[in-house]
């Protein structure tokens, strides 16, 4: 410390004289505010948040309720619009120049503070007559400033309602939005020095939303309710998918309305996917380190509002209009038979660690919402993002489940993919599959009926939990990704692991009544290489992120086909396209739930960037002109044909695991594996190095019956996967497996619009081209 006075100031939790204004009571927008005579009635402690309704004597108004355990008092802050450019430029949509919505001006409109004096079970509440939808608001919460015990109340900071249904404005993170003096010269104690400057001019406001607007009724909506086994998931970014689409009106590109546009939906329907998995659409904020570099968070894994659709993706407005626009998008997708799954981030918030901003939960009750270390100044971080929500706490669990139910019942979504789900499954410290979060989900009459996908790991000790989540849950299966990538780059020591992954990963999921569709199979995801980059680069090229190429994984399991990056070499380009066909075909023929990443079917590239989380530009956006290139159009045609084949044949989307046993006297089994010699695999074969594997799927032995009770039967197929760099001979198995085989897919062909149609006799020796998949149907 530079002086005894400054040291004393730190110990007292106040700012020393650094040129900051001394503010015993916060000064708002240049002058102290004395609230006019705004009536506030007792209201009700439930539901939480701001709910417009009819109050006593038929008077309309809004009930406000905020859980703030340990707080000494709470003020509701109401804002008008004078002097504020927040909201939407109706002529130009929600995009600012940076594409992330409106930037708040220094003026935030007149603020009126209304004390909430009613307290019920730690919930501060009140009904304010005359407050209607469109009203912007926030909270100021009073209490002790004692970071050493985890208490970080600071009434100078305007806080976003955790239950806000809409948010107007953007987070820019100037020093005023930090509860502590961000730029305190001794950074090791900076988080202990309270900053008394008002943050209201610099932070977004919650918006009161009409819950029952006539155009938001769901009477005309029909959920697709696609069974898990029949699902094909398509992971996409609302903005990136629509930003460059030439047939979407420019003012709708990058928005919910753009995704609802017929041109966007037409592509999804032609492709044949059954569900879109949207990268985060909860209101999110941008990290300070990105803003300092002139960048912003593109992916959105930095949530701050769990009930509000991200305002930057709205074309119609940001003072409540985004809610209706999101619902209209869901309706349009449902009408096309496509489900909507949200990627949700309940494991941490945008407030980061102790040096992060005070935007919402930290200022409401830091100790109640976050996991703290024994040194309560510090946060337990199982997420790698600075903090972890304390899901064991009842009010935190309530926040999450209320949010989930809201998105299902009022916003119409069909399921969720939980980012770093292992962090949610931790009890006090360890991951616990009987944890409060998982137990509540399992018994909830709404949530247990929707699609639940876990990213089954976090960054904490014991966080890797692939295969461990209970029934009702499916999981991102990274062991599938790794095995398929390694096989096609020639890095698997044998084919044991590949056999499990192709047939539903029974070694991971065949317990507790789980089914093959517990495995979400994927080769690529939003984080990592695109499919085209996976066969074009072996090393990451993340220089554009401004982090010295240190960010992003180095474990890419990629093969560049002999040349790093883009090339004009026709041989290398052809080989790369074949590898893309191999990877897509393997994925869509595997048992489980396939997940594609938007643009992989078109050959989208990120130039080798495997961590494009901060690239809101052409690096991340889909280039729709790829469809004009015959080579990439052929890749789209193959992908659509494989998905159609999957939909047409139940043997490719089984609801139960294979038994591998004969079910009839002729010895035919539901699943059989073959060497290139046409002989069934022995134990020794599984442990031997191999580049060729044959997988026989019997359509005669599918367990289960259709809706009318009729046993399900189908064609039988033989898939031959050959990762060798030279053609291989393969003997087609004879009786009882087949008499003849018809070639349905051959990935060595550039043109993929039609079925090859070549027929071979059983026992014949066929030539499988180098690095190719052949799918053969058993012919009668």
Automatic annotation (TrEMBL):
Record Pfam families: CBM_48
Chain residue ranges for the region called Disordered: 1-27, 87-110, 542-562
Domain (Glycosyl hydrolase family 13 catalytic): residue spans on this chain: 235-646
Biased composition, class Low complexity, residue ranges: 100-110
Keyword DNA-binding: no
Keyword Transcription: no
Keywords on record: Glycosidase, Hydrolase
Compositionally biased residues, Gly residues: 87-99
SMART domains per record: Aamy
Family: Belongs to the glycosyl hydrolase 13 family.
Compositionally biased intervals (Basic and acidic residues): 542-557
Name used for this protein in its record: Glycogen debranching protein GlgX
